[in-house]
Design brief:
This protein is of the alpha/beta class and 388 residues long. It has helices spanning 38-50, 63-76, 95-98, 121-134, 150-156, 160-177, 192-205, 223-237, 257-270, 300-311, 331-334, 366-380; strands at residues 12-14, 17-19, 26-30, 55-59, 84-87, 104-107, 138-144, 183-188, 211-213, 243-245, 286-289, 321-325, 340-344, 348-353, 356-362.
């Protein structure tokens, strides 16, 4: 058995669990339902909890979402007692009405720019911290490479990992100055290499801060599991990581697989069972897809992601990235770096070639349009024609 010495991070209480401070690595997941669909959200929270999740995250973008969350919390507390986290996304002012119903609030520093731009970021962070303190709630500073605030992006240019790390450091300094230390930090990207580099950089500067690990938009099994496993094997074996999530694009009833897979990876690492990785993994076709959540505006997104993966197999040897995103929050920005991007709306799909929007197509025709665009990208890159 390998000798893994966890970094001595400080303890952060989240509901009934402790993250950091030597506690076992906590495993999280996220409900992939529309929060206002109370029946479905209650059922999925129950399903994820039964799979062994220590913490379950739900997205809230509106007051109606918060009202639904309150009802979901009341229902699940009748039979189980899950620890719940909420994802504020762009509307940080929901914090005060959502805090009574959750154990942790996650905010993205990059999204604090979208509302009330006349207010300073520090004032917004102070508001969130005050709400958390009043309601006995922990915080997660959740930074993503694909949604770093514009000031950091301009400052660091092509070094998006540097921008991500400095954004996290800036917000931890603000929280510390405010006297609020009950927080964890996450630094995520769809590229496992950037996840490893970002977390290593941050941990070298702030080793006492608990870290939440994850490869965002890892995609569908098995590739999504492999990408995540590679990152976790490197970081956890170095003592980095206090809680984690395996973000997979999965059908409703399979959502518990995020939890069971996370526990399998942890168990394997501590038992010295490092899985072999295909020699050519990371080469050729790379399909990124988000794990879905309440912001997904059409559940056909999951089936579309699976269909795109199957359709594109004829190009599996080509160094091409296809990103399939399920909502308007992450879709536009996080498809910009892909050769082909699909971000899905309620009635149709926006098809992109890099930052260029090629068109908006119905779900039942976008696959053919994607195939045509894939052929175009193959030709532009000078690859030999692929046969179907």
């Amino acid at each position: 058995m390998p000798s893994i010495r966890r970094k001595p991070t400080r303890a952060v209480r989240i509901g009934t669990i402790q993250v950091g401070g030597g506690a076992p690595i906590a495993v999280q997941s996220m409900a992939a339902t529309k929060t206002q669909d109370i029946e479905a959200t209650t059922r999925q929270v129950t399903l994820i909890h039964a799979a062994g999740a220590d913490l379950i995250r739900i997205a809230c973008d509106s007051k109606k979402d918060v009202e639904a969350l309150a009802e979901v919390r009341a229902r699940v507390m009748e039979s189980i007692h899950p620890n719940l986290s909420v994802d504020l996304q762009e509307n940080y002012r929901l914090a005060e009405i959502v805090a009574p119903h959750v154990d942790k609030i996650r905010y993205n520093p990059g999204h604090l720019w979208h509302h009330e731009r006349e207010k300073s970021i520090r004032d917004k962070v102070a508001y969130i911290a005050e709400v958390a303190e009043q309601h006995d709630v922990a915080l997660r500073v959740g930074v993503n490479c694909g949604s770093v605030d514009p000031v950091m992006s301009e400052r660091f240019g092509d070094d998006d990992v540097g921008a991500m790390v400095e954004s996290a450091l800036e917000h931890t300094r603000m929280l510390d100055d405010l006297g609020f230390t009950r927080y964890v930090v996450s630094l995520k990207d769809s590229d496992w290499r950037k996840v490893v580099e970002g977390n290593r950089r941050f941990a070298s500067i702030r080793p006492e801060v608990p870290l939440h690990l994850g490869v965002t938009e890892a995609g569908m099994p098995p590739d999504g599991i492999i990408k995540t496993r590679i990152a976790f094997e490197q970081l956890i074996s170095e003592g980095i990581g206090d809680t984690l999530r395996v973000s997979l694009t999965l059908p409703f009833d399979d959502k518990g697989q995020e939890v069971t897979t996370g526990r399998e990876i942890i168990d394997d690492i501590y038992a010295g069972r490092f899985r072999s990785v295909p020699a050519n993994f990371g080469e050729g076709l790379n399909i990124i897809s988000c794990p879905s959540c309440s912001r997904v505006e059409n559940n056909a997104f999951v089936e579309l992601a699976q269909d795109v993966k199957a359709m594109a197999q004829y190009a599996k040897e080509y160094q091409i990235t296809i990103a399939v995103m399920g909502c308007r929050v992450n879709g536009p920005g996080e498809t910009d770096d892909a050769d082909i991007g699909l971000w899905c709306g309620p009635l149709g799909v926006n098809l992109k070639h890099g930052e260029e929007v090629v068109g908006h197509y119905p779900y039942d025709t976008v696959l053919n349009e994607t195939r045509a665009l894939l052929d175009r990208v193959i030709a532009e890159k000078g690859f030999a024609p692929a046969s179907a």
